[in-house]
Amino acid sequence: MPRRSSSTGSPTTPRNRTPQPVRVHRRSFGDFVKAFLAFVALLVLLVGVPGALATQLGWPVPSTWDPQEWLTNELSVGTFLGILTFFVWLAWAQFTACVIVEMKAALSGVGVPGRVPGAGPSQLLARQLVAALLLVGATAASLTPGLSQLGQSPEGNQRGTVAAAQQTPGGGLFAQQQEQAASTAAALAEQASHAEAAAPSTAKDGDTKYYRIQPPEGRHHDSLWEIAERHLGDGRRYKEIYQLNKDRVQPDGSRLSEASLIRPGWIMEMPGDARGGELVEMPDEAPDVSPEVQQQIHDYAKTGGDHAQGGGGASQVSLPEQRPAPEQRPAPDQNTGHQQQAPHATPAAESASFGLPEALLTAPLLAAGLLGALGRRRRQALWQSALGSVGGRRGMEPPTPTGDAADAQDALLVGADPEGVRLLDRSLRGLAASLAEESRPLPTVYAAWLSNGDLHLQLAQPAGKPPAPWQLGQDQTFWMLARSDAERYEDGDTAAPYPGLVSLGTMDDSRLLLNLESVPGIVSLSGREADRAAVFASVAAELATNGWSDRMTITLVGFGQDLTPLAPNRLRHLDGIDDLIETMEAETRQRRGALGAAGHDSVLTGRTGPAQHTRWAPHLVLLAAQPSADDAVKLAELASDAGRLGIGYLVGTETDDLPGAAWEMEITGEGKLLAPLLGLELDAQLLPTAQQQAVVELFVQADPEHGPDDPANTPPFLVDISEQGRPAVYARLVGPYEIIGLDTPDGERSALLHEALALLLLHREGVHPRVLSSALWPRGVTEDVRDALLERLNAWLGTDPDGSARLRTDSTGRLTLAKSVVSDLDVLRSLYHEATQGRGINSRQVRGRLLTDALVLVRGPLLADRPEGRYRWLTHEIIDAQLPLLVADIGLALSAFHLEKDRAEKAIEALTAALNSAPADERLWHELLRATHATGDTARLQALAADLISRSGARGLPPRTEALLDELLPNWRSGASAVG
């Protein structure tokens, strides 16, 4: 159950600050006097002040609207009084607005009152007067428990102080209120424990008892699990409380459902054997219960009946109600796959037969993040190698993974759901942008559910109606976005609102993402060490590579496998807990001070506005090692305010009593992630040690600093470029797609067969059958449909003269093509390799011919005429970066070949041809400038410089290009100014 540490700095283990029920005292004569005085004060300020101003000083509206007359009038005492009158009216209007805002919040009982701009002291005064006025009414007692305690005795006001400290945003009082809240928390916990121990337990079994939910203590909310643990002796009996109260109307008109958070002021009927001094027995009336609460309990008792006999379970993070999934039927063979089975659904037998790691196959968001990060790393290596190498291109061909690394890469290709990541990212950013347009703050989100393509956000508390196209879910704490609406969002520049969301697992075909950043305290994870390590690795890898965050710091402690290669800019390993505590103490102080200086109450409000991209990035701490008792206390103190500061803690523990743990989870040996307090039982998302090592190996191999020092670069597949090496099947991929040597297949099947052949041609090392089917049918496909396609592909490609099939299966089960099936990309690579590392090294004439032949093959971008909606697997490939670099290298080599003989025009022709396919390559432009300068035509060089300047746009020319122009054309800047 959630426990929070004392913030007093005591070295002892912090007390269990279990929230206690609200004590609603009888209204005294003093309360009525305060309410009367508040009413008089409000009457004077709201009615008397404007009346006096109107009769004595006049209305703020001028009698004439002639601006010229205002400007020509002489300054006088009357003018000064008029200006002063205007500002007094303005102050009255501001105070009136504060009263309206506070009154609305008090009567609705939902959320923290909005802030009136520039009205700090005025709004505070309005809040106190409204609270005093409502103190004697049932409205304040039942719907605004935080306000109902203002103005009472110190003993009765302690909890109200805690709530006020959390609800007062920004301002200079924030640090003081936080300190006051921390100091009263320990005393409150001690008083509560003594009261519970001393309370007599005289109820008889079978008596009807009731419990009234109290307001949150800071950010710590009461829960059914804690209520059951305190009063029934076992937190697991929370379901009995839920069954007794499900769907019954509460005093505020709402109901308890499977997905609702219990709210302050609600009443819970308790089982007959419940014990504890806070319970209220009815019809007996306890003397310390107000008449208003007695009436509420009487009314609530009337709603009890047979309706509460159903099963179910209450939860803090609960499964959303799902819309019926569309019926899915197996599609015919020629279908493109849009109506196939659910994404990545694969029979168990198939999974076992191919042996790919299930941990990556069943984690679509994690796989998509890893695949995207791996692609970016490989592209970075290509560019660094191209810009820094001399002679050959050491990094032009990334190493081909083998063994476990190859299986891990295939599993990433099969399991990844990049479209789901894109929609999630756009949806969250779109929501943030819409709320910013309405000047509304981001709500605190505890979790997100992906269910049947729809996105459900579970809020910490109701936040009103969501902006369109979002809709309210099953209750006020759920905001839902249908997939069809999410697909209409476009990319925007809004900062990522919830970067701390991370996948934990699935339940009933719904995937849960927990927002570690918003948890009000520590999230603890118990279980065997190996099982905990698999959860921690999965969380760390997804946080480091996910596609719905901008910036983030992830601190890892106690990890056996170094995961830094996944994201060196995000991940950092610390040696031990002492280093962690020292680091987080400093950062907690820094963030708390920054929030106070900026006037924000949490990082959520700091993620909107002009500075949204420069601060408020989350810091998530993953502590896999078991902390000592003293270290656990220190961590609990640091985490007590972490949710507001954008810091999240996930801590491993061997027991289930970690101090400061707000949410407790357990990973079982069967891969189940249990969180009884949250009502969750998930199929956990794991990344076991073997898969960790394989994934890290993929990233290490892609590192530009990793690999042999030999600059030679041998393509994975070389073809015979002589006349005797004419292939049986020749596919032209560089430009429009054409196939020579095969009959055109039937129209309905042609697109799939062409796409399958292109995939195999771009992967001469072999393609796993599941990777092939995942690429052709991203939404999933049945095994029989895939096998039928492979049979047709085999029949279409035919056999070689010796009778061997051109579509083969290697020893690892991967599909490969015979050497008689060749693409122009294979020929292009072979020609360049032969010209720069083969026969062309010793023969200038051969080198020139080979380079010229290679450049002639380039007819445009890869698969230039591919139909829309197909070949989406190319987004996972780096061929879009490899091909332009290869074309640029050919153009540069051919240009150098011609310039050796002072044939500048030939060099310009070669460079221009290469720029048609690689227009962004800075090296080509530099060589074109040099070749043009070699012609001696200054006007031509000036025209080329002007063209470069126009292409650069607002960003301007790169520094290297500017330096080269300074050397070749010293007056180019004056020409640029003229062009501008």
UniProtKB/TrEMBL annotation:
> Where are stretches of biased composition, namely Low complexity?
1-19, 338-351
Recall the taxonomic lineage recorded for the source organism: Bacteria, Bacillati, Actinomycetota, Actinomycetes, Kitasatosporales
Region Disordered: what ranges? 1-21, 147-167, 302-351
Which is an annotated Pfam family here? BTAD
InterPro entries reported for this sequence? Bact_Kbp, BTAD, LysM, LysM_dom_sf, TPR-like_helical_dom_sf
Q: Supply the Gene3D superfamilies for this chain.
A: LysM domain (3.10.350.10), Tetratricopeptide repeat domain (1.25.40.10)
Q: Where is the Bacterial transcriptional activator domain?
A: 823-969
User: By what name is this protein known?
Assistant: Bacterial transcriptional activator domain-containing protein
Offer one example of a GO biological process linked to this entry: phosphorelay signal transduction system
Mind telling me which CDD domains this protein's record contains?
Answer: LysM
Record keywords, A-Z? Membrane, Transmembrane, Transmembrane helix, Two-component regulatory system
Q: Which SUPFAM superfamilies match?
A: TPR-like
Membrane-traversing stretches:
78-103, 124-143
The record's listing under SMART domains reads: BTAD
